[in-house]
Amino acid sequence: MKKRGIILMLTGMLALGTLVGCGNKNDEGTATSGEPQKIKIGATIYKYDDSFMSYVRRAIEKQTEGKAELIMNDSQNDQAKQLEQIDTMIAKGVNVLAINLVNPKAAPSVIEKAKKEDIPVIFFNKEPEKSAMDSYDKCWYVGTESKESGVLQGKLMADDWQKNKEKWDKNKDGKLQYVLIKGEPGHPDAEARTKHSIEEVKNAGIEVEELAIDTGMWDAGKATEKMDAWISKYGDNIEMVVCNNDGMALGALASLEKAGYLKDDSKYVPIYGVDAIPEVLDKIKEGKIAGTVLNDAKNQGKALVELSVNVASGKDLLENTEWKLDDKKAVRVPYVGINKENITVGEDAYK
Ligand code: BGC
Ligand code: CA
């Protein structure tokens, strides 16, 4: 780095009121001054009690080791609590905020706080609206392309239906009668998965009939309750169970097994999820869940930490990383459709 560059960098850092980056090496490979000050990342998880997010949290913790100090908060599904946690982290002098919103619509309140203190924010898992993203030049998103998970789930469902139509079309009416357990309404992943999974099946030329749809709020216990009610109402008319995530697929499976389903071929009901969490991969191997879509927790955690460390130390967001930004200021980790045939892809991602 040229001398002028170093001076500019130092001035910039002093203006930010932080000495982060003091331990950076110059071109000769010697430290520029003093002890390196650790970068402080202030993070929130919308609630620890969410199976997929527990894997993302672990990935973040692992990735941060040796690179930064991490302040991690459980927002307990309470947006007001999360905003207080953000105030506290700002008071503690965090250099970057990594925020898994409780309510995707609350992004403007978070941005307002961060902007006042000139702290960059990287949202993850719950994507804010474009207007919010555009309101602050130092905010970005790490996650997925929600639509892709729906399309991939729908593809698995359509392929399997075509192959097994003889057996799976129980009432022989040529139509696929399904029930759908949705994630949190208004969550971009829940909305897109619900729409595109079924659309993909229709695009494959399969006629469908929706017996029931309701939210299970991403939660296994709530999904079991829904499924219990639907089994008593529709019983054997249910030809497929579509779930917006794996937690709810496990909940639906528990309900179906309790009612005597899935114990042999004649009582088989195909269930689909999204995430590819290890518990579901085991059920796929046992033949109890038909398919899922890998939601790559490990790489989402990795991208989030790499970007956070970069911006916190005044570097370019994407410096020395494999990630790209799209036109919505987002880094998107790809989804992969998973069934018995490529189960190792899911297993490798969650190792
Ligand atoms: C995951 C869900 C999770 C939700 C939390 C989604 O991307 O698929 O399992 O509950 O994010 O926001
Ligand atoms: Ca049918």
Automatic annotation (TrEMBL):
Keywords: Calcium, Metal-binding, Periplasm, Signal, Sugar transport, Transport. One of its GO terms (molecular function) is carbohydrate binding. Residues 41-315 form the Periplasmic binding protein domain. SUPFAM superfamilies: Periplasmic binding protein-like I (SSF53822). It is found in: Cell envelope. The ABC transporter complex is composed of one ATP-binding protein (MglA), two transmembrane proteins (MglC) and a solute-binding protein (MglB). This is D-galactose/methyl-galactoside binding periplasmic protein MglB. It comes from Clostridium fallax.
